[in-house]
Amino acid sequence: MPSRRPKATHVETASADLLAEQVERLKEVFPEVVTEGKVDFEKLKATLGEIVDDRPERYSFTWAGKRDAVRLLQVPSRATLVPCPEESVAWEATKNVFIEGENLEVLKLLYKSYAGQVKMIYIDPPYNTGNDFIYPDNFADPLDTYLKLTGQKDSEGNLLTSNPETSGRYHSAWLSMMYPRLFVARQLLSDEGVVFVSIDDDEVHNLRVLMGEVFGEENFIGTVCWQKKYSPANDRSDLSDAHDYILVCAKQRPFGEGRRSEAVLDRLPRTSQQDSAYRNPDDDRRGPWKPGDYTCNKSAEERPNLYYPIKHPKTGENIWPKKTRVWAYSKEEHDRHVKDKRLWWGLDGSNRVPAYKRFLSEVPGLLPTTWWPFADAGHTDEARKETNALFPEIARGFETAKPVRLIRRVVQLGAGRDSTERPIVLDFFSGTATTAQAVLDLNREEGASRRFIMVQLPEPTSEESLPTIADIGKERIRRVIKKLKAEAKGEKGLFKDRETPEDLGFRVFKLAESNYRQWRGVDAKDGKAWEKEMALFTDSLLPGCKAEDVIWEVALKEGYGLSSTVEKAKGLKGNTVWRVADPDSGQTFRICLDKKLKRPTVKALKLRKDDLFICRDCALTDEVAANLALQCRLKSI
After folding, report:
1. What is the 8-class DSSP label of residue 262?
2. In terms of CB atoms within 10 Å, which end of the chain has fewer, N or C?
3. Cross-strand bridge partners of residue 426
């Protein structure tokens, strides 16, 4: 009998199928409602029982084109991200990333590697004012649309268009653009993650409901009102708009006892002026403190357990609170305060009632409010001056740019320095990369180790030296890094107490067509055309593709992060083999892209059961495939 060649598992050729993963999750919870991979909704309704709302009329949120938006979400990406070390800074050492490309395709590609890994997302999407660009999503072939849009393929007409109210789908087009991006973004957030979205009056009402649908209404944290202007615009006929909004949602808001929500956001740092209220008149070893009221505005009838006498340490008499304003602490808590020397009776100990000593070392940061005045968070004119200072050679203004102070505040709340180890900050409408600058500045100021992932469509500009917004964003990061390096130069001991070195670099990747052959389809009746097309697939890789590009595509679709390292194996004869390692997950694999895999190479690699080895399918003979299948986990391209 002829020998049967062991089958190697094939590497993924597309991004993860989000719909299939959602069905798998449903199957885990309700296995009885899934038959042959499809959900039986009648069984699901019966299983849920009274939870299902069968009323003929009920509240729902929909718009023209919502079904297409859902379909677009379900189409896996067959694109890839191409590494661009020549446009990067400190490629080998950095974990920061800038991706040039259409953000929905990019988010799909990031899903497998970064699902549940992102601590904070901030986005400043198009406000839908009529002149803003709306991404021309095409659920049939999103990548093809992007390639035409960026001039990588021939196209007719301007595919990147504004969204005028006369289009008839003014709000619907904007919602269809936002829905799939927010949906995938939610999957990238960690369970403790949070998202901030800037918006103005045109779409704040729709965005509020849309975020409730995507994230769940119970996970909505609040709406920040940011004072973006410091003076009225006299060219307005009625009201001068002086503010924008930032909507804040949690991925999974925790609830404590009695359904009272626990904190999701970090606190803002205290200022020296606020700390000056704390002093230490009695030289307490615990440091500066501030006296706090020992009574509360409750009566003895309302809180009888808080109406009791306490002993004055100097006179020995029993001190009773007023019946209309009782003690703020129970008798048990008061006894602990006495034992812990928390009561202050004045310098000479003769105060009639005590105060509670609140120590500065125990005081958390500032709880933010929903009103952010420009004095605290900057304004649009400040943003223009910041970008113009970085790019004095550019004549155009940056009307929609956000000030660094605003984004700094957002990052401090969403990814505080103590939130997680090296938290990831994602901005997939990154524009001129203000978010990247805010992360770099805060890391320098606080000695923190946040890292960023920026995603930006290469929208055209009128600048010859910086032809796209993505080019401006990359150059901004380079100039900020150069400035930070210059400031640190010569300062001995700077960041010597940091657990990890300061990351002053970033990797650049660009969205591109896959290196894998794609089935284009032929007439089934045309036998010669069918035979010719099939013959091409004896090798799944396109001719002329670069090895580095293929390796990164394989890594990304196998779930490896963009901070992975790629090293050529040494001491091998006959074949070139690379080792890919993800420092975050600890995963590794080895890959050979030669068209023929030689036996001495297989032997020299000394592969073990848990090792992953990837090669071209056409490189495997039956004998080599059998040996590798016994030695390691084998996958082929």
Report:
1. P
2. N
3. 121, 453
Among candidate residues 20, 88, 3, 68, the one with its CA nearest the CA of residue 506? 88
Q: Tell me, what's the pLDDT at 507?
A: 98
Q: Which two tokens stand for residue 39?
A: 């959900």
Question: Under DSSP, is residue 304 helix (H, G, I), strand (E, B) or coil?
Answer: helix
Instruction: Return d(Cα 461, Cα 431) in angstroms, integer.
Output: 12
Residue 227 tokens, joined? 């004072």
Which residue segment(s) compose the domain that 284 sits in?
A: 272-362
Angle, alpha carbons 259-412-244 (nearest 5°): 85
| 249 in Cβ contact with 220 (< 8 Å) | yes
Q: Are 178 and 106 in contact (CB under 8 A)?
A: no
For residue 487, count other CB atoms closer than 10 A to its CB: 11
pLDDT attached to residue 215: 95
Question: Alpha-carbon distance 564 to 417, whole Å?
Answer: 24
Give the SS3 label for residue 261: strand
329-352 per-position pLDDT tens digit: 999 999 999 999 999 999 999 999
Residues 369 and 247 in one domain: yes
Paired tokens of 91:
């490629």
Tokens of 55: 């009323």
Phi-psi region of 224 (alpha: psi -120 to 50; beta: other; left: phi over 0): beta
Q: Are residues 214 and 140 in the same domain?
A: yes
Identify whether residues 442 and 469 lie together within a single domain: yes
CB atoms within 10 A of CB 323: 10
Q: What are phi and psi of 161, to 5 degrees?
A: -120, 160
Residue type, 11: V
Rounded distance between C-alpha atoms, residue 183 and residue 185, angstroms: 5
Question: 606 is written with which tokens?
Answer: 């000394």
What whole-number distance in Å separates Cα of residue 439 and Cα of residue 425? 8
CA distances in angstroms from 474 to 366, 371, 375, 407, 433, listed in the order given: 34, 32, 29, 18, 7
Count: domains in the chain: 4
